[in-house]
């Protein structure tokens, strides 16, 4: 019952944040949602004190958002700009994780060993497609830049998952497998792309 009440409060908070954004759209929607989430967590009630399993959160919240945003994208644009999109979603994500993880380890070497620092960096590196869209909705952004950002935020989750899996394996065992990481990347990235295009064809 507590979990159900917490989910109802969560969805109510999202609706209220969206309504406020419609009335006063000066700030990005994501800012309103973050503020509403902080206020919800500050309420003196145990209804918001619950734990949602990551698999359930991915299925109920993340997957519908990503699917809805992915339906509005153009496969022709993706194929004609795949080099720039992959350079941002894969290469830039990898460089960002390496730099952020190294800085975190050097700043707090006893708290964050390299594997743990890279794990944290891989979690915060991938951008969110919904957040990018909400932030740039009231801004004048060149069409090619806006398109590259939206597509990059859809695909860099695969990079984040691979880097997180690699860092987690290295943290637990003290060693890592490049072949396993490449297999995970192929499975997440290419299989999702194929299934998405197959669904769009149907």
Automatic annotation (TrEMBL):
The Cation/H+ exchanger transmembrane domain, residue ranges:
14-196
Where does the UniProt annotation locate this protein? Cell membrane
One matching Pfam family is Na_H_Exchanger
Q: Any idea which UniProt keywords this protein has?
A: Cell membrane, Ion transport, Membrane, Sodium, Sodium transport, Transmembrane, Transmembrane helix, Transport
**Its membrane topology:** Multi-pass membrane protein
Q: Which domain of life is it from?
A: Bacteria
Task: Indicate where this protein is primarily found.
Answer: membrane
Segments passing through the bilayer: 27-50, 85-108, 114-132, 182-199
Protein name as catalogued: Sodium, potassium, lithium and rubidium/H(+) antiporter domain protein
């Amino acid at each position: 019952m507590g979990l159900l009440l917490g989910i109802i409060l969560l969805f109510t908070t999202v609706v209220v944040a969206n309504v406020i954004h419609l009335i006063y759209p000066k700030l990005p929607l994501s800012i309103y949602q973050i503020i509403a989430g902080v206020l919800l967590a500050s309420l003196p009630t145990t209804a918001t004190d619950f734990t949602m399993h990551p698999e359930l959160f991915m299925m109920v919240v993340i997957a519908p958002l990503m699917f809805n945003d992915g339906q509005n994208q153009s496969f022709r644009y993706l194929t004609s700009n795949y080099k720039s999109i992959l350079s941002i979603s894969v290469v830039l994500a990898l460089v960002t994780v390496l730099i952020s993880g190294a800085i975190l380890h050097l700043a707090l070497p006893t708290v964050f060993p390299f594997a743990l620092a890279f794990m944290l960096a891989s979690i915060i590196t991938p951008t969110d497609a919904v957040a990018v869209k909400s932030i740039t909705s009231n801004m004048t952004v060149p069409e090619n830049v806006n398109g590259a950002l939206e597509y990059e935020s859809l695909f860099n989750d695969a990079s984040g998952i691979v880097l997180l899996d690699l860092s987690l394996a290295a943290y637990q065992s003290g060693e890592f497998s490049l072949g396993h990481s490449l297999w995970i990347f192929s499975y997440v990235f290419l299989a999702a792309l194929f299934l998405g295009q197959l669904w769009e064809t149907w």
